[in-house]
């Protein structure tokens, strides 16, 4: 790995760690599970699936994708692609075979889990 690639990887890993740490502090929609995927993105984008307890919407509602660029609080070289959903919404996305779920199945890695029965069930369904 070149020095430039090492630096990019370091910045992205640091940004993911800071983001997850900040989101863990939220009490209104507690984090259940965070999965990083699409590691081989050629533009150094970061892809995260955040499963949140008490996330709004019906159980079969589609996951909410959000995209961010670099900011003073988020130093990354590409964009952040954040997909949000409740445990039930993620289960529905698995059943629908949404494209994000295909990516998670391909190379997803758990970044955070709260150890709850919900997290354990989702890990099993996602084969992680």
Quick summary of this structure?
39% of the residues lie in helices and 23% in strands. It has 128 residues and is an alpha+beta fold. The relative contact order is 0.21.
Strand order of the largest sheet: 3-4-2-1-5
Q: Give the % helix.
A: 25-40%
- Low-pLDDT residue intervals, each spanning 5 or more residues: none
Number of strands: 5
Note the overall shape. Answer: globular
CATH superfamily: Beta Polymerase, domain 2
Pairing-aware structural class of the strands and helices? alpha+beta
Fold-level CATH name? Beta Polymerase, domain 2
Average pLDDT? 92
Total helical segments: 4
- Taken in chain order, the helices and strands follow as HEEEEHHEH
Strand content: 15-25%
CATH architectural grouping: 2-Layer Sandwich
Counted up, domains total: 1
First-last Cα distance: 27 Å
Q: Describe the largest sheet.
A: 5 strands, mixed
CATH class: Alpha Beta
Cα gyration radius (Å): 14 Å
Please, could you describe this protein's structure?
The chain has 128 residues and is of the alpha+beta class. The protein has a five-stranded mixed sheet with strand order 3-4-2-1-5, sandwiched between helices. The longest helix has 22 residues, at 3-24. It is built from four helices and five strands. The mean pLDDT is 92. α2 (87-96) packs parallel to α4. It has helices spanning 3-24, 87-96, 99-107, 117-125; strands spanning 31-37, 46-52, 64-68, 80-85, 109-113.
């Amino acid at each position: 790995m070149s020095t430039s690639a090492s630096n990019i990887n370091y910045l992205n890993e640091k940004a993911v760690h800071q983001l997850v740490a900040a989101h863990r502090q939220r009490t209104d929609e507690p984090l259940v599970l965070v999965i990083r995927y699409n590691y081989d993105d050629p533009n150094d984008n970061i892809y995260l699936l955040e499963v949140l307890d008490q996330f709004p919407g019906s159980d079969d509602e589609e996951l909410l994708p959000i995209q961010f660029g670099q900011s003073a609080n988020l130093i990354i070289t590409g964009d952040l692609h954040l997909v949000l959903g409740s445990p039930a919404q993620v289960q529905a996305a698995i059943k629908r075979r949404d494209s994000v779920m295909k990516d998670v199945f391909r190379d997803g890695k758990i970044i955070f889990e709260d150890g709850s029965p919900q997290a354990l069930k989702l890990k099993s369904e996602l084969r992680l």
